[in-house]
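Can't paste images in this forum, so I'm doing it all in text. The chain is below; anyone willing to post the predicted structure tokens underneath?
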Amino acid sequence: MTKIRESKTVYKVKINNAGINGYDPKGKIIHWDPKKILVSGDCNEISPESLLQHELGHAYQDEKKPLPLEPKLDEKLQIEDENVFLNELPVTVARGEGKRIDYLDWIYSVRDGYIYNVNTGFIGPKPKQFYDKSLKFMIRPEK
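Text version of the structure:
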């Protein structure tokens, strides 16, 4: 993201292995797990690199107009939806990855072979193939 590189603001990227991705506008810190993958509503994976682009998008949003430190739910969803559309979607389309129509358009998070469901939380170890009959969808084996 060229505009962030050209910024006079110093942003820090904190790499973690806890499945946490996020942007802290107060500390100008991007939290990123390089092994976390999302499975979007279209049943395709969104890579860790694209998820980092999503968080960089928040830094850019904050650069243009300071983000609220404690947004209300409707404000948060508006910020997230704008970021998905303007900063994440162009990257995932270009990379041939999953495409979210809005921030909440994801089904599973996969990290280190474990599956987390957006609605129920932790499911368990990811088998070679996982089929969710309620969603009529299969997670592909890891490459």
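The longest helix spans residues 73-95. The CA atoms of residues 77 and 103 lie 7 Å apart.
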